[in-house]
Amino acid sequence: MIFVSQHVTIEIFPLGGAGVKAPSGLTPTIARYDLSELDNSFDDAAFSDIWRQAMEEYERTTKTSLSDPAIYKAGSINDLVQMVESGSTKFQQWRWPSEQRKRFLGVFKGAMRSVEILVRVVGDGIGDAFPPSKIIFNSISHLIQTGATVTKESDNIIRFFTDIKAFLDRMNVHDNTTCPPALRKIFVEILVCVLTLCALTTKSLKSGKTIKFFKALARGEDDDLAEAYAQLQRLIDLEGRMTGAQTLKVTSHGLSVAKETHQAVNAVSNTVTGMDAKLEEIMEKMKEKEGDKMREKDSDSLRQTQQFLAPVSDVKNDYENVRRTLLPGTASWILEDFLFKTWVGEVGGDAGKVLWVSGSPGSGKTFISGFIARTLSERYPQRVQDPSRISVAYFFLRENDKKVPEKRSMRAALRTMAMQVAENDKVYMQHVLKVARISPNLESFSVGVIWKELFTDFFLPKCKSSVFLVIDGLDEADAGERQDFIEVLGDVDENNLNIRVALIGRPELTQDILQNIVPCQVVLTARRNAKDIEHFIKHKIARSRLKSASQALKTEVIEALTQGANGMFLWIDLMIKELLHKIRPEQVRAALKNMPKGLPEMYTQVLTRLHSILDEEMIEDVSDILRWVACGEAALTYEQLRDALKLRTGEDMFCFYELLERCGSILAVFDAEGALLEEILDSHDMRGDDDGGEGGPCCDDDRKATVADRDDVSDDEDDFGADAAPADAADDEDADKKELQFQGATVKLRHLSLGEYLRTPAAAKFLDPNAAEVHIVTMLFKMFVQETHVEPPSALVNYGGLYWLVHFIKIDFTKVSLAKKVALANDLYAMFHRPDVQKMWLITSFRAIELGRAEYSGPILAVLAAALDPEAEGVEAETRAWAEELVAAPQLLSLPIAKWAAHTWLTELYGLTGHAYIYAYVLHQSLGVIPEIGPRAQPWTWDDFRTVGSAEELLALSRWAIAETGAPITAESRRAVAFALRETGFVEEAIEWCDKSLALGEMAITHATKSLCLEKLGRLEEAIAEQLICSQGAEHATYWSTWAKLGALYKEAGKQAEATAAYRKAYEIAPAGGAAAEYLACLAAERNAGQYTEVLDALPLPMLVSQCTGFEMEFHKQAYDNAQLAGKLPALLKRLAEAVRTELAARRPVQALLCRYWLAWHAARDPAQPYSRALRQYRRVLRDGARLIAGPAATHPGAALLRMTVDMATEALAAIYYERAVAGIQPDGTGLNEAALCSLTTLVENAVKSQERTADDDDAGMFVSTRNCALLLGKVYLKLGQVDKCRATIKERLQLGVDLLSDTDPENDFEASYVLTRALLLSGDTEGALTAMQVNMTDLEDGEVDDAEPAKSEHEPEDKPKLLMLLGCDGICHAELKDKTMMCTTCLNVDYCDPCIEVLRAGNQPYRRCDPTHEFVQFPPPGLPQTKSGNVYFRGEEIALSAWLDTVRKEYGLK
C-alpha cells in the first residue's frame, strides 16, 4: 500500500495484507518508507557500548581475536564467496556433489544478504576501530575456515546458515531504508545475536563436537545456545511489531497530509518525488537484462578467433561423453596422490608442471582425463571472467576417429585448446588476434611454432593468466607431431611458464617423455584402481538383470571380476556383457572359472559368442559391419552403413538398428551432435532380453529347461531374471521412432584396442583386413557401375568418390584370386570410361588427380595386367583392349579421366565441373600427349589450384579436347576457355575468347566475364558497355550483384548519376543484398552537388517506408534533406501519408505502422510542422502497435518489424516529451512543463511493462529503447538543479561503464567509454566525460603491457581513438567523425562537427535536432597530451586508467 504526499513517501510492507489502492488523484509510486524522524532516543555512543561488549564476549568464547592475521579478512559477501570458491581454504575437502554445493551457496548468499542489509542500516559509526561490518564478516570467515578443515562438518555448516537465513529473511524489507534509532537498536542487538551464534558454532567446530552441538540444540539441552536462538527470535518478533506500529503511525500522518494536499497532487515536487521511486524500479528491472547485452558484445572477436584457430568442433562432445559416464566417487583417488598435488601446485611450489599418467588399454585413462578436466573446471569456473584468469583446456586425441581425422593431430589439439582458453580469458583472446594479424596461416605451421606463438609467448612468468592443459590419448596422436610436442614441453619447467600440462597415454611413451622432461608420473595400476574397479562392477551389476541374482552369487561375481580385471575397466564391461547371456547360476560360475585373460582373449570370446548365437545370414551382416567400420577411411553414418549392407544383399534391411544393438559389445554409436548413444547400445546387454538380441541363449535348450529344472535349484540361487517380464517397454517402441533415434548417427568401434586386435592373426576368423578392403572396393564399384541410375542415390556416393582409390591401393593383390582381379578389372574399365559412372564419382572430389602418382597408378595397372593372364576368364573385350594398351603405354592410365575432365570443362558452365580444366591440365602433365604441356617439376598440391604455365597450354588443352573428346565448338565451349584464361590470369587472351564466344551466340555470362577482364585492364568504358548488356533482363533478386557491379564501374568512371541508378536497381531487387551502403554514398554525392530533385526521384520511397534492413534511417535523412533543399517537404509528407493509406487498403497493418512511423519522423524533423502532428502519429503507432502485438500479428513473420517499429516510436516520442518538458526551465528550477513530464513518465512505465511482457522473446530493441527513455527522465533532475538525484538516477549506468572497463574483455571498452561519457555529461561532470572519452580500444588491461606484447615507445605515436571512428555527425553533413567531435551536454547522444555546429548556432539548420542555445564540449580538448596505452590524462597529470576508475567509484559511491 503506497501513498505519496509533499512531506512523506511511504510503502506499507506486507504485514497487514496486500495493500490498499491509493486514493484517486494521487500518483502511485514504488518508494521505501522513511522513518528517520520518529525516534531519536538512542545514539551511537549507546550502540557502541553494546557492540564492544559483544566483541569481547566473542573473543572469550572462541579464544581467538578477530584481528588475528590468520583469519581471512572479508568486507563483503563477494569476499566470502570468493574465499569459499578459491583454493585459499581447504573447502575443497568437502567434495560435495555440484547440487549440494549449489544449495550451500544459495543458502549462504541468502543469509549473508540479510546480514549485509543489517550492517548497512546500522552503519559502521558505532564501532570505533573495528566496525560491525568487519566484525560480522570476519567472524563468518573464521567459522568457514574452521569448518572447512573438517570434512564431516559440511552438512552442519549448511544447517547453520539455513537457520540464520530463516531468521533473517525478513530483514530484506529494510534494504535502502533510513530507520529511526529505536529500530536501529533492535538491529544492533540482532547482529549481536548473530555474532554470538557464530562464536558458539565456531567453538563447537574447533572441539569436533558439532553433531552433539546441534543435537543439544534440538533437545534444548544447551542453555547458551538455546538462549541465543530464543533471543534472536524475540528480537525478530519485536522488530516486526515495531515496524508495523511505526508504519501505521506514519500511514495516519500520510493519509492526513494526502487529504490536505489532494487538490495539489500535480505540483512539481510531488511529480519529481514519484518519479524518483519509479525510476529506481525501472533501472532495477533493466539492470537484470544488462548482462545479456554485455555478453553479446564480444561475439565478433570470438568469431575472428575461431576462424583463425580453426578448432576441432566436437571436442566438447568428447568431454561430455566422458563426464556423463564417469561414475560418482571414482577416480577421486588421484586428488590425494602426492605427485598430482605437486602438479596442481598444492605442494612443491612451481615444480613439476608436466603430469604424465600412463596405463594399459582399458585401464580408465580417458576417465582419469575427464575427471581431471572436470575437477579443475569446478575449481576454476570457466567463462565467468574470474579475476584469477585461470583457464582449463582439454583435448581427446583419437586415432580411430575417422569422422574427424584432425583428432590425431597435435597441431589441431593446440589450436583447439587455445580456443577454449580464449573463450575464458579475453586478454588471451587479444593475444591470439594479434598472432592472427602477424601470422595468418597458423594451420600450416609446425607443432613447435604453434606452441610458441599460442602458449609460451603469452604465459610468461609475469603474466597474470595461467592455464591447465589436459591431453588424453597421447599415444593416438600422429607420431611425428607427438614427438615434436614432447620435445618443446621442456620449455614449461625451464622457463617457469604459467602452464601446467597433463598428458595421458599408454606406457610405451614413457621412455620418450623421460628423455625430454622430468614429469610428475602417475601409473594406473590394478592397486590404484582397486576401489574404482569394485565400484564400477557394482554399478554395472545394479543396472543389469544380474541385480536379481542372490547376494551370494553377486559377491562371487564381484570378487572374481575384481581379481581378473587387472585394473582394466573395459575388460570388466565386456565380461559383464558376457555374463548377461548366462541363464542359471551354475552357468555364471562356470564362466567365472574360465574368464579370458586380457583384452585379446576377451575380444575373441565376445566375437565367438556373437557368432554362436546368430544365424548364418546375421553372422555375415555382422562381419560386413566389421569390415566397413574397422577398415573404413572415414566414420560411416547409420545411413551409409545401412546402404553398404544393402549393396551386398540387394535388399534394404528392416530395423537395421536392431542389428547394431546386437553388436553393443563391439560398437559405439554417436548421435548427430556427437553424443554417445550409450543407453541405446546397452539396451540388450543391460536387460538380457528374452526375445533374442544379444541374449540369444535365452531361447536355446538351456533356457527351455529352466522351468523344468527349477526343483534342482536351491532357494537362494533362483534363476536370476527368469521370472522377469519377457521384454522391456522399450522393445515395444514404434520402429519409425526408433529409426529416428539413429538418423545421422555415426558408428565406430567401441575401443581403439578392438581395431588393433582385429588386425592380428588371432582375429583372422572374424576379420581378414585384406579381404575386407577387397570387399569394400567391390561394393563401391557395384554402386558406381551397376546402380548409377538408382534414385535416390546411395548415401555412400560421396564416400566412394573420396576413398575408393585409397582402399584400392591398400589391397595386397598377391592374396587376391585371379577371378576377383578380373571382376575388378572389368569394373575399373567402367569407372574410367563410362561417362555416367565417371561423373558420379569424379564430381565428388579431385582425388583422381592422384592418378599421376605411381603409388596410385601401380595397383590399378597390376589388376589390369591380370586381365591378360591366359587363365583369366570373364574378361570383357573392352577391358582386355584397354589392358593391352596400357602394357605398351602405362602412363596413359589416366587418359580417359583427362578426356572426361576436358569435355566437361567445355560443355558444362557451373559448379565443380566449371573447374574441370584443372583435372585435365594436371593429369596431362603426367600423360605427355599434348606437347605444349610438359611434366611437373614437383608433385601437385592445392596451392597450385588455378595455376598453369601459360595461356598456350590451356588453349592446347582446349584444342585437344575438341579433337579427342568430340566437344563441340559452341559459344558455351569458347566461354569456358575464356573463363579458365581469366581465372589463371591471362586477361588479354580471355577477352579474345569472349569475343569468339559471342560471335557464336549471345550469353549474358560471357559479357560479364569480358567486363571483368576489361576492368582489370583499366578499359572502363568498354567494361561498362559489356556489363550493361549483361544486366539486360536481370530482374530477379539473385542478379543484384550484376547491377551492383555496373554501379561500381560507373562510379569508377566518374559517372555519378548512372552509378546511382545502377545501385538503386540493385537495392530495389534485393534490399538486403549488400548494395545499400554504396547507394547511400551516391545519393550523398548528388545532394552535395545540388541535385536535390534528382535524389528525391532516385529514392525508392514506397519500399523504404514498408521494410527495414538497417539502412532506412540514412535513406530517410537523405529524403528529408533533399526535399527540404528542393522546397518539397509538404509533397514528401503527402507521399508518406498516401503510403499509409495504401498499406492499410492492402491489409498490411505492420507495413502501414512503419509507414506511419516515418511520417511522424519527418513531421517531427520539420520545423514548419507543429509538434502536435508528429505526436499524433507517434501515439497512433504506439496504440496500433500495442493492439497488433496482442493479436495474431505478434506471431506473424513481420513480428520483429512490428516490435522494432514500436521501439523506435517509443524512443522518438520520449525525446519529444523531454524537449517539451525542459524547454522552459529556468536556472532557479521553475518553468517545468509538468504535463509533458507526466506524459514522459507514463511512456516509460508502459515501455517497461511492454518489455516485461516480451522478456521471453529476447527483445534487445525494446531493452535499449526503454533504457534510453529512462535516461531522459534522469535528465529532468539535472535541469531542475537536483544534481544528487540526477547522479542517483544514472548510478546504474556509471556502474555498468566502470564494470565494463574493469573486466578482462577489451572488446567492450568502446561501449564502456560511450556509456561513461554520456552518463557523466548527464550528471554535469564534463571533466569526467572527457576523461572517459580518452579510453582507447587497447589489447591489454591496465598495467599488463608485459604480459602479452611489448609496450609502445614513448616516441611512438598512438593511433587515433577508435571510439571516434564509430561516431557520425548529427548535422547537415551526416559525415563520420574521425578526428574530433562536439558533444551536446543537454541532448542524448548528439554529436556535431565544427562546420555543422556553426550552422546550428546560426539558426540555419533546416531540421529539428538539438538547439542553438545548448552547450557543447569538444573532444579531444585542445592541448590534450598523448598518453601511454592504459593511461588517461586527468586533472593535469597522466595516471593509470585503474586509478581514475577508483576515483569515479569513490566519487559516485560505486562498487
What is the makeup of the main sheet?
5 strands, parallel
Structural class: mainly alpha
Ends distance: 32 Å
Oligomer: single chain
Strand content: under 5%
- Strand order, main sheet: write it out: 4-5-6-3-7
Characteristic terms for this protein:
single chain; three-stranded antiparallel β-sheet; 1455 residues; 17 strands; mainly alpha; five-stranded parallel β-sheet
Task: Please provide a written account of the structure.
With 1455 residues, the protein is mainly α. It contains 62 helices and 17 strands. A 5-stranded parallel β-sheet has the order 4-5-6-3-7, sandwiched between helices. A 3-stranded antiparallel β-sheet has the order 8-10-9. The protein has a 3-stranded antiparallel β-sheet with strand order 14-13-15. Helix 41 (971-983) packs antiparallel against helix 42, helix 43 packs antiparallel against helix 44 and helix 55 (1234-1253) runs antiparallel to helix 56 (1260-1279). The chain starts with a strand and ends with a helix.
